[in-house]
Amino acid sequence: MSLKEIEKEILSCRRCPLWKLKKNYVPGEGKENAEIIFIGEAPGRDEDEKGRPFIGNAGKLLTDLIENTLQLRREDVFITNVLKCRPPNNRDPTEEEIKACLPYLLKQIEVINPKVIVCLGRFAAKTVFDHFGIPFTTISKERGIIREKNGKYLIATYHPAAGLYKPPLKEVIEEDFKKIKYFIKKTKNKKVTLFDFFSK
Ligand code: URA
C-alpha cells in the first residue's frame, strides 16, 4: 500500500459521523519514507478549510520547530493527526472517533516506517502509546522521554497550541525538540539499542 492509496481511502471515509460536519478531510502530508512523523490531535479550523495539517498558528510553531530546531525541511518529514476530520468547535475527540480513525494512522506509520514518532499533546500520546503497549499517565509525566518500541523511537511532547497560550510550555517543547535533534544526530546511520540515557 502507498500513502496515496491510504489518502484515497481517507477521502471517502464514513467510519464516524465527523465526515458530515467537516469541510475537508485532512489525511496528512510529507515524505513517503520520512525518518520522522509528527502526530497531532485533529484538524482545527484552518486545516479543515484547506485540507492540510498544522497550517494555522499551532502549525506555524510546529513548522518553526521542525525547520529551526531540528533543521529539517517540513516537506521531508510527515505530519498528520489521530483524527483526519475536524471535530465541531475543536472539541476533544471521542473514543469512538479515535477507534474509527486509528487504522488510517497505523497504516501511515506502517508505510512510512519512520525511525522516530513524535506525539504532539496528550491525545496523540495516549492513542499511540496505547497502541505500542506503553503505559500512559499524563502528558507532563510522559513527555520528553525517548522510548524504543518495535525498533521505533517514540517521544511525546506538549501540543504546540498549548505552547502558544502558555509560554513556559513552549520552552519545554523546544527542549524536547532539541532532544530529538540530538538523538537523530547521535544515531545517524547507526542501528541503536536503547537507551535510557536520554531519559529524564
Ligand atoms: N492541531 C492539531 O492537533 N492538528 C492540526 O493539524 C492543527 C491543530
Task: Give a summary of the structure in a few sentences.
With 200 residues, the protein is α/β, with parallel strands linked by helices. The chain has helices spanning 3-10, 18-21, 45-50, 57-69, 95-112, 122-132, 139-142, 160-165, 167-186; strands at residues 29-30, 36-40, 78-81, 116-120, 147-149, 152-157. Strands 1-3-2-4-6-5 form a 6-stranded mixed β-sheet, sandwiched between helices.
Q: What is the tally of beta strands?
A: 6
Tally of separate helices: 9
Largest sheet: 6 strands, mixed
Do you know the CATH topology? Uracil-DNA Glycosylase, subunit E
Unreliable parts: 196-200
Number of domains: 1
Order of helices and strands: HHEEHHEHEHHEEHH
InterPro entries: Type-4_UDG, UDG_Type-4/5, Ura-DNA_glyco_family4, Uracil-DNA_glycosylase-like, Uracil-DNA_glycosylase-like_sf
Pfam families: UDG (PF03167)
Keywords: 4Fe-4S, DNA damage, DNA repair, Hydrolase, Iron, Iron-sulfur, Metal-binding
Protein name: Type-4 uracil-DNA glycosylase
Describe the fold and architecture:
It catalyses: Hydrolyzes single-stranded DNA or mismatched double-stranded DNA and polynucleotides, releasing free uracil. It is an enzyme of class 3 (hydrolase). Belongs to the uracil-DNA glycosylase (UDG) superfamily. Type 4 (UDGa) family. Its EC number is 3.2.2.27. By secondary structure, the protein is an alpha/beta fold. The chain is 45% helix and 12% strand. It has one domain: Uracil-DNA Glycosylase, subunit E (3-Layer(aba) Sandwich), CATH 3.40.470. The chain has a 6-stranded mixed beta sheet, with helices on both faces. Strand 5 (147-149) and strand 6 form a beta hairpin. Helix 1 (3-10) runs antiparallel to helix 5. It is globular. The chain starts with a helix and ends in a 14-residue tail after the last helix. The model is unreliable at 196-200 (pLDDT under 50). Uracil (URA) is lined by residues 40-44, 47, 53-54, 56, 58-59, 81, 161.
